[in-house]
Amino acid sequence: MTIHSEHPFADPPEGRSPLRRFRGRLVSPVSVWTALGRGHRAGWTVSSFLVADGEPGEVLGLVDEDSDLGELLTHPQAQPAVVVNLLTWEQRALADAFAGQAPAPGGVFRLGEWTESEWGPVLLDSAGWIGARLVPQPPDHAGWGLLVRATVEHVELGASGDDAPLVHARGRYRTLPAD
């Protein structure tokens, strides 16, 4: 067995998408989007999202259409709401579990403490959360992701405000210093 410093399944540099490499240089916040519908909870780790201020404010995100959350949000009988839970550095294992990159015995909602809201499950010790109502429109895509667009109805910030936010850049989790 040989130990290599590079990832054994990574594409060689000349085979990598320039757009994906460009996107990897951007710092993105890490969140877990959750919803409730058809008798169960669903969630997905999302770092490709945008919060647009306005009257009303909106949140737009890219979700894997084949994820439990993507399937729930596009089901005709689903509750048309979503929660955007902003994660902290200490919650990076939770981000991996919701992305399907780490095990979650008993299910991902057994990790962390959750409470229900009218928009879906809320992570109690998140850096903050948004409750939003989906904009009624046929499913749309941006790139390979399902484009989720929702009107912000509720915003709560984390209790301390000193939480180190979890961000993603160059394929790794990082943190930013709290101000």
Structural class: mainly beta
Our count of helices gives 3
Shape annotation: globular
Distance separating the two termini = 46 Å
- Which H/E pattern describes the elements? HEEEEEHEHEEEEEEE
Q: What profile does the largest beta sheet have?
A: 8 strands, antiparallel
Q: Mean pLDDT score, rounded?
A: 88
Helicity range: 10-25%
Compute the number of strand runs.
13
Radius of gyration: 17 Å
Low-confidence stretches: none
Provide the β-strand percentage band: 35-45%
What do these coordinates show?
The structure is a single chain. The protein has 179 residues and is mainly beta. The protein has 3 helices and 13 strands; from the N terminus they run αβββββαβαβββββββ. The strands form 3 sheets. Strands 2, 3, 4, 5, 6, 9, 10 and 11 form an 8-stranded antiparallel sheet that branches. Strand 4 and strand 5 form a beta hairpin. The chain starts with 17 loop residues before the first helix and ends with a strand. The model has no long low-confidence stretch (mean pLDDT 88).
